[in-house]
Design brief:
The chain is mainly α. The protein is built from three helices and no strands. The longest helix has about 35 residues.
């Protein structure tokens, strides 16, 4: 049987993981919208594409990845 503290840690890790997945889903959704808009444009240049990609919140993406890695490490124990 799990100790109460271990149960709380798993619950917290699960919440962090779900939050990270939601953040990642939001980022991917934004990327998908940007991609769809770009394909609808008659002509898109490399500079336009670079501008679209710089709008991605890299820090949020990195946080989401770190949370997912932490969750996976916790579950591997």
């Amino acid at each position: 049987m799990m100790e109460p503290n271990q149960h709380q840690q798993r619950r917290a890790a699960n919440q962090d993981f779900e939050e990270s997945l939601n953040q990642l889903g939001g980022i991917l959704h934004e990327e998908n919208l940007a991609e769809n808009e770009a394909t609808q444009a008659e002509e898109i240049t490399d500079a336009d594409l670079a501008d679209e990609l710089t709008d991605i919140d890299l820090a949020a993406f990195e946080d989401a990845v770190a949370d997912i890695e932490q969750y996976l490490e916790e579950n591997a124990k």
